[in-house]
Amino acid sequence: MEKVYMNREMGDGLLLLRTYMDTIQSTKDPDTKSQPENSFAERLLQEHRCKKHSEVQSSDFAVDNYDAAVRGHDAVEIQWSPPYGRYLVAARDIDAGEVILREKPLLIVPRINSEPTCLACMKPLGKDWEGCNLCGGPLCSPHCAGTYHGKKECILICRIGIKNSQNIESCIKQLNILLGPLRVLLMFQESPETTELFFALQSHEKERRKMHISRFVEEHVVRAMETLLGLEVDSGVVHRVCGVLDTNAFELSLDQCRQGRAIFILSSMMNHSCLSNAQRWYSEGNMVVRASVDISKGTPLFISYTQSLWGTRARRAHLSVSKMFLCKCKRCLDSTELGSHMSSIPCRECQGLVVPPDDSCSYWTCTLCGKRIDANATESLVRAGAIAMNHLPKDDTAGATLILEHLKRQLGDNHYIVAQIKYAVVQAIINRPLKDVTSRDLTRVVTLTKELITLATIIEPGITRFRGLLLLEQTRAWSEILQRCLEAAPADGGRSLVAGEGRCVDADEGPNTSDDINHNDELVHHSNNIPSVQMLLSQVAECEYLLQYDPRLPEVTQLAHNLRLLLKSPAVVQQNLEGAASKRQG
Ligand SMILES: C[S@@+](CC[C@H](N)C(=O)[O-])C[C@H]1O[C@@H](n2cnc3c(N)ncnc32)[C@H](O)[C@@H]1O
Question: Which part of the chain is the SET domain (predicted)?
Fold first, then answer.
């Protein structure tokens, strides 16, 4: 404990956060609203409730969100150590799949992007939007029931002059940059006690001062607040607010279409690892953090701040620029990336794989023949792959598959560029109405998702969203294939197709030139391995568990419903009866 106070900034914050957490921990029942009297959380809540009644509307975003009470979190505690700052640790053994944290946001702000977003409900609006009657800022409708656009904010935004602007696009861009820090400052004004809590979070203020971001904040936030909004602001405070937001805010899908960035005090204490042991969702107004693997008492909890389908170099660069640290997790320190070889390329001399240099050397090395390769040669190959990936033909899965096959030969089957293209092809196919997808493309989805699930087992092990989404796409493809088989030969549950003499077609043979949807040849091949409805139902049950808190859960439920209906179809019933009879005979 002593050394905690060696770092004053961190130590002060730690004390405050631990106090905050203690009050939360002391209320175990997730449905109980009562907090210990005079506790920090209770004080915050009481003050908030008084405001809620007396100042309706003035700072609507803070209303309700301020009910930042996280309850019953006996699973975690906060610790501190010099290289990592504060972090959450398992206070007891935690089982894979257990919910570790459930927390309401302190505040929600819009994402920084140039797209107009409804100020009141945070729905991205595209080109067609209506302006707020008063300030002219984007709203999905003048009667939007969203509560984020409070009166004070509206009055300030009026001063930007969006209504009469000749260049609305640039006004909206500026507004999107300003809005996050502006809402934080309004929250401080409305609820001064939030200031201390917010500033207990890390801002990397000093490091940011030396970086380009500092000039950006000075120009587009501090100066814009002064000149456009006519506010007198403390530049240091604004920089710190922006630092806290950039370091701690979670990008969220608020529901299936609304998006935002939000601050969660305790969830912010989770450090990063590219091989995380927990994952987070936003579900029914709460951050839900779930253990993806078993975590033993005393182990730090890690979520991932980055993308598992990126190679080490890209992940580390992203973390170092956006979160100001050099990741030294197991995956980052291993040039084979845990044996996945997602950044390796095939050796031209032998069957081996050439792995990227680690911090100690500058050349790439084959793990089999030991050949050393100059970094420039391999990097230009990877760059060419990245360019091809960024120009992948849209709505042309055959074309995309050709590129994929070419890059597989150049970069290897598991390379991160190849993996990202595989996932992009899966999404391009499966996001179309399934009735319009050729059987060949459905087959492709099955093959690619199987390969990606194998990869996911290494880079995102356990109960994870990525596995859930891959399994969902695979099950959707299988169930469409199965239905086509049943429709093509309903009398015998598709088995006559199995006995047919058609040519076996495999997804790897290349693109289909015909757009014939009911491609019986392919069905012949696949009816040999098509899972039964029961098998697909158990796959869906796994998806339901994995995606329990995901916005795509309704799709899983719908798929389960469709499969249950299929189970009742005469062809499947007949098949099951015959199956049961032959089992009895056997
Ligand atoms: C959301 S905060 C996490 C809590 C933070 N450690 C604190 O004390 O407030 C993110 C910051 O934590 C630090 N951090 C997170 N993961 C880390 C890691 N694996 N190694 C080193 N620092 C890390 C970085 O400074 C990063 O910008």
Answer: 74-306
